[in-house]
Batch of 2 targets.
Target 1
Amino acid sequence: MITGKQSISFENPPYIVNYASIVGQKEGEGPLGNCFDVIEEDPMVGSPNWEQAESALQKKAAETALQKAGLKPKDMRYLFSGDLLGQIIASSFGMLDLQIPMFGLYGACSTAGESLSLSAMTVAAGYADYCLAVTSSHFASAEKQFRYPLEYASQRPLSTTWTVTGSGAFIVGKQGKVKITGVTTGKMMDYGVKDSMNMGAAMAPAAADTICAHFKDFGRGPEDYDLIVTGDLGVVGRELLLDLLKQKGFDLTEKHFDCGIAIFDDITQDTHSGGSGCGCSAVTLAGYLLPKLESGELKRIFFMPTGALLSTVSFNEGQSIPGICHGVILEH
Amino acid sequence: MITGKQSISFENPPYIVNYASIVGQKEGEGPLGNCFDVIEEDPMVGSPNWEQAESALQKKAAETALQKAGLKPKDMRYLFSGDLLGQIIASSFGMLDLQIPMFGLYGACSTAGESLSLSAMTVAAGYADYCLAVTSSHFASAEKQFRYPLEYASQRPLSTTWTVTGSGAFIVGKQGKVKITGVTTGKMMDYGVKDSMNMGAAMAPAAADTICAHFKDFGRGPEDYDLIVTGDLGVVGRELLLDLLKQKGFDLTEKHFDCGIAIFDDITQDTHSGGSGCGCSAVTLAGYLLPKLESGELKRIFFMPTGALLSTVSFNEGQSIPGICHGVILEH
């Protein structure tokens, strides 16, 4: 069951029972626009502020996933959820009404991988029939948290990514649509990047480290996967990841898929390096990738979202931006 | 193994292998001053700012626990850590050098319970020989995060608590000093409290809910425990907890122990309702309670730190302060 240094291979693999994706208008107008369960036209989602708007996205995603599965909140033994905001308030206030025993997580944009890993470990260990994994991000709450007031209309360098407005929810259980056959849990990697407008560069080393650990632990290579899926490295981070892996002897050019690159069309949507945020990988997995795994169009992918571990305080104090990456094997 | 609605009873209980507590000067001068492994006289812990000081406390706590156990960071298969700061930067930067696969957590002041629960579940499931659970808080980084600049010397109402400067680290493994025989995982409870200077009131309902769920799941009552240990309800929160439990038919007056009340002497230390922060319950457990469990002076306790799920943003936007409480059964 314990596999190599950082991985688990499940003897009785848990399944993704059902899943849902809720996105904002811009995501709905992007290349994956026809994949999502709900496109929210109102950026406030009927809420008085951006943070509560993000909470509302989480709640809708969870409720939609439960509805699709024909399950109730009380059927969920544990909730694993997190987001990008300080003290994960999007999750606390979004999930409050569901009244599920909750483990709050913070893994920055890797949280979809972290929550799926812990849900899978919990179900496979027999601790739960069902777990619910929920993550979110919102463009406006993230800009307010990490960058500048939107009213400044600050110019963004070409290495920046655009935080996805969206939430993905996943029910993990003993039977279902897509198998979770293993996980590889990441270590923090710090290459000394200090540019918060270049998150791809900060996170690429963590992605490279987790994927190398994964290949070693499982005795696999890129050829064993239909896709190797990162969360939000973007165009800049992708180049770095491919370079780092070439140095380790792996060519990922054909197999690599980045949710951040897929979700927006930079030419028409002006998003620069791509999409980002906890919601980016979560909604791309729920909206685009899981249906393909369910149908068999994809047989096996390695889903490995990365997170940039900074706060405005650490950034302003001159600290670097370590990255982390949590991987999950998903199979038809 | 699954017990009742919210609990797990471990068939092969994991153990706390070893543990360490690092505290600041004020905690060292308090009633438990002679219990801790290290008392740091320098509030900056040799660091350039409060956040890095807190990171340094975490690192020292982890290193001390590893040293006491005769183990190395590479022996730890997973790290579960968290703190109170936005984007848990005390944990990220404190634990970076240890290079252990990491699950970042946020449960506010309940994080010691959350990290011990997940560590115990992970070891008991056979996913790890050893897990490391680390949490921290620092008076100055918490005041900066949640309240006012220290230089303002703001008056504090009597219901406030004083954030403990300290970090506790726990190694969980298959053999060791103190058994973890079960966990009860909390739901978020919101009684509509909006006063961030009265965290005890915000968290008491969550403590009451978790303890009632625990008694029901295990068919136990206060008489089955030597102590029922909350983290940082303080004097105000304790009264509310005892009242809430009386309404449910439980008298906890004799069995209840609050780490926040124990760690400071309000008469001489002017801390008002008591101590608080992720570090409060962690260092009291590591410094004061675990040695008594190890010696057999205590046979069985229920350790159930509570967290207040607010941020400055949610507070300033007029949101209430939900609480959460994660319980762990510890036995000689």
Target 2
Amino acid sequence: MTGINRRMMLAGAAAGATAAMLPGAKPARAALPLQGKQNPGWYRYKVGDYEVTVVTDGAGTFPLPDKFVVNASKDQVAAELAKHHLDPAKITVPFTPIVINTGSKLVLIDTGYGEEAAKKPNATTGQVTANLKAAGIDPANIDIVIISHFHGDHVNGLLNAEKKLAYPNAEVMVPAVEWKYWTDDGEMSRAPEGRMQGLFKSNRAIFDALNRKVTPYEWNKEVIPGLTAIGTPGHTPGHTSYVLASGNGKVFIQSDVTNVPFLFVSNPGWHAGYDQDGDLAEATRRKTYDMIVAEKLPVQGFHYPFPGLGHLEKAGDGYRLVPMPWNPVI
Amino acid sequence: MTGINRRMMLAGAAAGATAAMLPGAKPARAALPLQGKQNPGWYRYKVGDYEVTVVTDGAGTFPLPDKFVVNASKDQVAAELAKHHLDPAKITVPFTPIVINTGSKLVLIDTGYGEEAAKKPNATTGQVTANLKAAGIDPANIDIVIISHFHGDHVNGLLNAEKKLAYPNAEVMVPAVEWKYWTDDGEMSRAPEGRMQGLFKSNRAIFDALNRKVTPYEWNKEVIPGLTAIGTPGHTPGHTSYVLASGNGKVFIQSDVTNVPFLFVSNPGWHAGYDQDGDLAEATRRKTYDMIVAEKLPVQGFHYPFPGLGHLEKAGDGYRLVPMPWNPVI
């Protein structure tokens, strides 16, 4: 006989309110008040001789939009959220930059929304600077910032709350294809009103604040020693992923090949509203994921839940993300 | 055309060693040396009005023993590890106590190995005290320590490195069934030599250091308001799980209903060497997990990877653990 039964579990669920004080109970309050504070979101792992520090910028939560997925109904998306044990009425999107210390360079890949976002009331993003500091990293120590593509959650943090350089000593490296696209006046003039025009404008404001002082980098070449840029276009024209390799270590840094895994890893055919060219993004996604599965590479995902490191496996018509166990030592 | 191809990814993998210095590269060393330090392992979430703080004691890694699973071959276990993207030659077992702040009591469930373990060379366990402090919790603030069962990873930390009370102001509450079993001289005399005799002796040493001053608690009753003890025997005779409930929040604290999920959640019929009564432990496991799946309860697992919170779903002949996304705010 086991002592457990369903009635007791349900009873347990309702009992909190009616409980009497226990014998031996002394203070009416806990010795410590509720803390209400989360652990600073950073996590460290080795890739060969390199040290990767994941630093979350936080996560944004919002009511499920009608067309979060362009080619699926809101009901289908809600059902998929529920299937993943999540609230079907809202979406939470995490933002997860990483720092690579190669021993000779301290390199940040993507910036998060940055300090400006942290100033908003009830802010849940803009945590990168605080989390870097918690991890022992001063932004002034960053030698290079590498940008994967020109969306706000990846570039806005190039500037601090005073609209000055957040990484004052860093060289800023950008995908050559992405740079060409967003600085091309013809592309801007042809871009639709609304979100796309807004992106052109905000990108230009950011890079003007840097005096357009950037180093474009090419696909299929090393951006820094050990970090090879892989063109994964569709999400944006110059969207870039990376293979980080050192010694026997290797990890695929996917950037936004998928947005949140609980929708788009399971359903690689779904197109996020954020994907500029949905068909190309899907082709890239399937090709990239098939390769990652075949190579059994660990994957670091910008929109995966912190710390964003896992493995992919085929599951039904899509894939499954298996988060890597947290390592309490490094 | 996407820019990615397999040859490039493999090339990227090998390129680290041969890379030349980049134009624009200045210092030969990063502005910051490798840090080599992991984030203190604590994580906080709300259950209704209650605040739960998960504090990892670390994780132990050891070569895969021949009989880690009593009723499966070493090859089968190694294959299962590989299937979960883990090294098939070794096992990593995490240890994950939690603190519950009810607003009127600060309660620790299980202690981890404690400070004694942290003193060993290259220690990877015994981190609870350090992680409590990182989370803003002084061990002297703990009002109650609740023990789920009498194995070293759950009780050794009752004592600090000086073999004194690690939680000097805490009432220690233990399952009545477990207390009766381990303090019964007849049970001890009948226990097999080796591990079981060792457990009897070390448990008695620990509780003698406490002058046997404990409060036994009963199954199917509240241990503290909102926390109901659920008998889940088999792993030990008095092994106990809990339902924590406050407001609309509810979580099932499974203790050791399974050891590591990547073996025993997938294969509920596998018996860990640590299970004192393998058949009863299996019956408990299946009954408990079927109920958790039916009730869609979140589960907190002592041997789940940090932070140890997830949902269970049926998968094939067993179950699958889906870790809950890390919440960067609380």
